[in-house]
Amino acid sequence: MEGMKQHHAAKWLALLGLLVMACGGLFYAVSIRHGGWGLIGAGAGLFIVLLAALVARDAVGVFFAKRSARLGLGSGVAIIAAVALVMFLGALGARHHVRWDLSQGAAHTLSPQTIKVLKGLKAPVKAYAFFKDTQAGRPQAEEELGKYAYASRLFTYRFVNPDQEPGLAKAMKVRNYGTVVLVGGGREEQVQLPEEQELTNALIRMGKKGKKRIYFLTGHGEPSLDGVGKEDFTTLRKALEGMNYEVKSLMLVTSDQVPPDAAVVVMAGPKKPMLPQEMERLSAYWDKGGSVLLLLDPGSDGGLGAWLKAKGVELGNDLVIDQASRLAGLSPLAPLASEYGFHDITKMMSGTFCFFPQARSVTLVTTLPEGIKGEELVKTSPASWATDYGSFLSWYKTQMDKLKQNQGQQVPIELKPNQGDRKGPISLGAALNKEGKAAQGKERPEGSSRLVVIGDADFANNEFLDLAGNHDLALNSVSWLAADDDLVAIRAKARKNQPLLLQPVQERLLFWIPLVAWPLVLAVVGIVVIIRRRRGR
């Protein structure tokens, strides 16, 4: 009697062990970050099953002595092994699945910058997406967040219906449907448009304790940071602010020095030269370890030509013309840059193009000053050449006068290199850095100065910033100058709808093969198999 009770208890103990094993295995399969607890549960269940077998070892021995039991055990083991294999493959696929993006331009793949930011996460980040269950745009947001979660296990997300969980929406100060709130490291960031660039910028802001300040010099005819004109830099300012920089204007003539909190000083498109006292203040800032970005159009160097020559950068008093730009539908006066130097700013830009409307050459001298290292950043195509800027303006004015004399008749202006012009490739930009002494608590050595010079300011204005690789070149230059080397990468591009256009023959094939021919083949094969089986009986 006592043995019967013991066997009955062992039976229930074994069932409990099997249940714990199943729950542990299921938790391991679905959990991403805490799978270890599932393994512990499965191990505990196995221990309980073994304990039950030990308690009822006499009954177990008698049971396995039977031939039917041994056959059943073999079948059971085979079934369990098959189920375990399926579960293992499912868990493996859930944890280590691989995606292949075959879309045009890899439209469904995160940009290198986003991958870089996700790999640099030091704490878990969870995204709360506040959408209605049937709200428009939810599938696209879920697809976008899924790509982030796929790229990093530290990034997770959850969709919340604000109507069903108003308390959570109120706690996170969510006022509009479609808002995504990123939470991590004790900080929160809201994103109103859950697209890649906005999400990545929010992650960047979460990872920065404070905002670095970028100062744009004014007072020399530079375009506005707030204007809506094509030549203004409003788009560039907004892009920098999205990367957690604070952008300000600086009139250096009314300040006794460059502000100590300046991460980068930018001079973009000056029409008039700097005053001597301004030059002294800018030079003092750079000598103490400052970073300067100069975007200088042809015909105006802002009075910085001699200062740059002393640093090893030579500004050409020329205009670069490139016939290859015609292939992109642009004027030859907007040279196309297709070659890049192996520098942190441009080493990831291979395969992209930049366009520089009315650019001048920027080259490094053969022997750089002691302690300064430099690299030419961008070069034009071999179809380009550099011609004297003043001579070109005189020649162009003559051509326009001829057009007026012809009473508006269209006479094509032929652009071709003159004798003495320098043939391409032509360098349009350069980067310098001067290493200083290491100092404790500093992002870079004391006195370590950085300088980027590009022979065109228009490439970064409202009209051309988002053209081809201009966006990456401009923002990478600022990030490198600000010592944010982890932000130097290729950024997300705007999505483009690419409809699938089929020829009439392709349309017919797409209809007949999958909808008619293939089902017909399967039906014929099935009939043949049935007839052969009946004849064989």
Description of the molecule:
This protein is of the alpha/beta class and 537 residues long. It folds into four domains: 2-96; 110-191, Glutaredoxin; 213-487, 3-Layer(aba) Sandwich (Rossmann fold); 502-537. The chain is built from 14 helices and 18 strands. The protein has helices at 2-30, 35-55, 57-64, 67-96, 112-119, 138-151, 166-171, 196-207, 234-242, 276-287, 305-311, 389-405, 470-481, 504-535, and strands spanning 125-130, 155-160, 179-184, 187-191, 212-217, 245-250, 262-268, 291-295, 313-315, 318-322, 336-340, 354-355, 362-364, 372-380, 384-388, 422-423, 427-434, 449-454. The strands form four sheets. A nine-stranded mixed beta sheet has the order 6-5-7-8-18-17-14-11-12. A four-stranded mixed beta sheet has the order 2-1-3-4, covered by helices on one side. Helix 6 (138-151) links the parallel strand 1 and strand 2. The protein is elongated. The two termini are 56 Å apart. 32% of the residues are buried.
